[in-house]
Amino acid sequence: MPTEPDADLVLTLRVNGDRKRLLIPANRTLLNLLRQDLGLTGSKHGCDVGDCGACTVLMNGAPRLSCVTLAADAEGAELLTVEGVSVGGALHPLQAAFHEQVAAQCGYCTPGFIMALKALFDERPDPSDEELNEVLGANICRCTGYTKILAAARQARERMNGRSA
Amino acid sequence: MSEHEKPSGEPVPVGRRGGKIDGLPKITGAARFTDDLTLPGMLHGAFLRSPHAHARILSIDVSAAAALPGVYAVLTGADLPTPYGVIPVAQDEHALAVGKVLFIGDEVAAVAAVDQETARRAAALIRVEYEPLEGVFTIEDALNPDKPLLHDERRRKGDTNVLRRVFQKYGDPEAGFAEADVILESSYDYPGSTHVPLETQVALAQPHPDGKLTLWSSTQIPHYLHRIVAKVLGMREQDVRVIKPDVGAGYGGKSDPFANELCAAALARKTGRPVKFILDREEVFYAHRGRHPTRMTLKMGVTKDGRITAADFKAWAAGGAYASYGVVTAYYFGVFLPLPYKLDHWQFESHRCYTNHPPCGPKRGHGAIQPRFALELHLDKLAHAIGMSPEALRLKNTVEPDTETSNGLRITSVALKECVDKVVAASGYLEKRGKLGPNRGIGLATSAYMCGALHPIVQSEMPQSAVQICADRSGRVSILSGTADIGQGSNHMLAAIVAGRLGIPETDCVVLESDTGLTPVDLGSYSSRVTFFAGNAAKMAAEQLYAVIRAAAAEKLGGDDVVMAGGKVFRASAPEKALEFADAVQLAEERHGTLGFVGHYKPPKIGSRFRRQSVGPSPAYSFTAQVAEVVVDPETGFVTVERIWAAHDCGKALNPTIVEGQIEGCVYMGVGEALGEEQSYTKTGLHRAPSILEYKIPTVFETPEITTIIVESNDKEGPYGAKEAGEGPQLSTVPAIANAIFDACGVWMNEAPFTPDRVLKAIERRDREARRAAAEEGA
Amino acid sequence: MLPLPTFSVLSPRSVADAVGMLTDHPEARLIAGGTDLLPSMKYGLFSPPALIRLGGVAALQDITTTEEGGLRIGSGATLRAVGRDPRVQRLYPALAAATRTVATSTIQAMGTLGGNLMLDTRCAWYNQSSFWRGALGGCLKCHSGPEGAICHVAPKGKGCYAAHSADTAPGLLLYGAEVELVSSRGARQVAVSALYGEDGRDWIRRAPDELLTAVILPPPPPGAVVHRKLRARASIDYPLLLTAAAFDPEGGPRVVVSAVGPRPILLSGLAEAFRDGGVEAVAEAGYKQVSPLSTHV
Description:
The complex is a heterotrimer.
Chain A: E1 8-15, E2 18-25, H1 30-37, E3 56-59, E4 62-65, E5 78-80, H2 93-100, H3 110-123, H4 129-136, H5 147-160
Parallel strand pairs in A: 1-5
Antiparallel strand pairs in A: 1-2, 3-4, 3-5
Helix pairs in contact in A: 2-5, 3-4, 4-5
Chain B: E1 2-5, E2 11-14, H1 24-28, E3 43-49, E4 55-61, H2 63-67, E5 71-76, E6 100-101, E7 107-113, H3 116-125, E8 127-132, H4 139-143, E9 162-170, H5 173-179, E10 182-190, E11 202-207, E12 213-217, H6 222-233, E13 240-243, H7 259-271, E14 275-278, H8 281-287, E15 294-302, E16 308-318, H9 326-335, E17 346-353, H10 369-386, H11 390-397, E18 403-404, E19 410-411, H12 416-427, H13 429-432, E20 440-450, E21 465-471, E22 477-481, H14 490-502, E23 509-513, H15 530-557, E24 562-565, E25 568-571, E26 574-580, H16 581-592, E27 595-601, E28 621-632, E29 639-649, H17 656-675, E30 705-711, H18 733-745, H19 756-778
Parallel strand pairs in B: 3-14, 12-13, 16-17, 22-23, 29-30
Antiparallel strand pairs in B: 1-2, 3-7, 4-6, 4-8, 5-7, 9-17, 10-15, 11-12, 11-14, 15-16, 18-19, 20-28, 21-22, 21-27, 24-25, 25-26, 28-29
Helix pairs in contact in B: 10-18, 14-15, 15-16, 17-18
Chain C: E1 8-10, H1 15-24, E2 29-31, H2 37-42, E3 50-53, E4 63-65, E5 71-74, H3 79-84, H4 86-91, H5 93-99, H6 105-110, H7 113-117, H8 130-136, H9 169-174, E6 178-183, E7 186-191, E8 211-217, E9 224-230, E10 241-248, E11 252-258, E12 265-266, H10 270-288
Parallel strand pairs in C: 1-3, 2-3
Antiparallel strand pairs in C: 4-5, 5-8, 6-7, 6-8, 9-10, 10-11, 11-12
């Protein structure tokens, strides 16, 4: 184990299923790794200090604010960003519901909401309204008053559980 | 799906619910906002900002910054000396400070470097020598002729820091007050607040070898930005192209040209390389242009049976360091005061002042939010005083359709009574008021707002909106428009109008918007003008295309009763022999040549009795009624807004889901202004809360359950009946909450936001007064 | 975009590695969830030459039952993991509740229990950008600027009143929890009640080379312990007031309040107040012992 610190790091990880190996400066945030180094611009800079949730991605299945995560923390990790949510051209039920309910107005917060909600649905396929709200509470939307976002989350929940909505 | 009857009797189907034609990229991460764009060789900009609220710049030394490896250019005020401002009569801004700095955060110098880290490091190396000046921080300071002027060049003897004073008088207020049985006068304070769009301001400028320039920016006003970039950079307008990519919302906060846009352009020209210039979150609080903090007094009289006889209103706004739209604000304060009520005898006096703070400007409900707060609280006080239900008092004074107000506003469609009836019924207002028990209450408010300004910012007789549509043999219809979709759904609105007219799916339309190199001029997304103005332009273009296709199909099908619906073109009398839309387009193209049509909108010339009323009149007005139900915690002073019912007369909902979203967004923003949002400053002018952590925008937990009710008055001049929905609904929210707090615990909250400390103080005052009254009774 | 200052990263795999690195690099900072450290570094509050990442030390994430019937919670366990642990929920419900009031659900999934206990004191005049603090002129806590000798919250006072804002600390204090601090000099245990200093600048009694490895909880006391947090918004926000209260039918009420000064305060004289005037008297007695200042961010 070397104890001399490295100014640059070699990072190996999987992003949306693809294996990536990169040389990055040690002070790279995960958000800048995604946006600058990998060109995945779906995750957004809203506040850059962990207040708004627009940069939320999944790391090994758990939601993370990528603007306050060191890229170094993603070594060996499995990352999922908004670009990886719809597989094979098919929208995820959450995305379909967001579209139908017009839950995205300006759309800047939307990737963060979709990722935070996806983390919940992956873990708890039939979450309660309270659990949905707890996740919505982690993200700021300035356009919708959260009303259509909650409606979309509920609609996705109903459809994913084979109930009509 | 509902149908709107055209005068000709032909039904035009509009009003489909659900997804926007351009909605998918925003939920898959494919949308491209300005910060998502990169160009080869791109440099990054950073500002040096003033740490002083008011100071003279004695010297600037950029040598250390310029010498830092990776730095390509440094600009100061001397490089961009041309003043500008969005309003022609108030050209008081510079891209970088010239001579003086006027608030903490004012831009002093700009750097372009190889990356943001280097640009920021270089900006920090710039040495500025300042001579601090006395600051102007309050209304009293601004009105005091002994205080220094922010804009020295305006100096005349006795001058103060008042940018604009407006006084208007209608009827005979004195006589009106004489008629009144009850007269009340109160003071009100409304806080400054800011937009906080989730996307910060971002600009990307690309210089071209032929001397031209392309600027991508997160703007609501590509057209004005285009003009001002050319002016400040000394370029010909035809050499500048402004493109607005996807924008992460604005709410009015991106309606001015900003220093990052002008400096990106200037740095790109200076270095010959593309320059991206992003504001960080804190910087957006300094760029601001939000709600004016406003002190008001209102005196109103009513008769015992609830007729409003007279009003006298005064307003003073501390507007920050630059004018922005402040001249307009000063007019709006008064012009929209009475609406939606009849009021014959009244006057107002408003002052928009300069102070050494970040500049105020237009925020959702611009200029109308503050007077509405005062007037709607005042109406409840008057109702209380004469023992009348607040809802009955409002209904008694409501403005009637097809009338003219005392200040010369032409009123056309009005469905306010229906809005009031519907929210009252849905909320149970009449059953609940006064009966919800201690610390729970219900309140009502109503409002009206404009659908675009009759008179453009820059006076001209040219169209204010224009749309070009083309159909080709594939059946695809393209819509070119200079409107700025910033999330409100204006692209979808254009498609809904065109598709509705042509009887095709909205998704068969492609909207190309906001590229001043390609799209016809539109003045931008402000003053709730887009649906009414650009929508009418789209309708005009679509109807020409419709007529040509229909005529070609009639020839082919052998009859005049041709209908276009469901993607097909057929005779009403023989629907089984239908042409595909694309086939009909081909027939038209053979007959007419290539299919391209333009439509435009110029508001009608509305003769006003008052020539001076150039700011405020609109071709139509939207109307709103809202009821709020709140709970007050008397121990902590916390107010919880549990539910809001909002009924809005939007004329005609071209897409009800989008209209609901606009109403919900308005209510939400109102709840934020009611409960805790405030641009507040230390005594030295330093922003107290320049972050999303500190500036208390509501999370999902503070947001009430919102019930929206769409009311359609079918405006005869609106595009297929439509009026605005994006701003008007916010006007009612804060006063409805204030009136509900009174119903809950008997205190009038004359000062917003209704923070726990203010509410607790009001409750303590109530209890003190009750004790004193009891003691006096005992004595 | 707010850039981070430059630094290098060390990635230990074991506690011994981490402690060794801390000894070798005394200026380095430890990073676990990063949700407080990285914003502070983006704001330029400090600029360490190296960060020691604790995320790779798996052993720090363990939650195990102790022989005494209590729990030993690794400092690297996320707040979410702690709050969801059935043993925590059963034995220490006030701790579980406290983890669920920290910031947001996403931050609970990132932040760790150790990180929460090591949360620096906070103040509206301190937790700001370099530009903002420069325009202010500095303060006592940031040790710089012409105003560096002034506390803007209490200009006449001598100390720094930055507020202790760790949601989990009051409950842990009432549960009698201790933390384990490990350095190359050995390991020691310190009660949570003795972990914090009395000034906002000197708020933690941890040596710079010590690593907080675990929180050790004794078996729970008899009677209920509850946690309450008052904040401007029901998500995102740091506390305006934290309280944890325990009631033991034998010993009477015990209450800790925090977020009103640099350290959690165990209120005194409550047993007497309760005997004389019940719960209302306890609240009055507590209210008199607390004098919040406007430090909150």
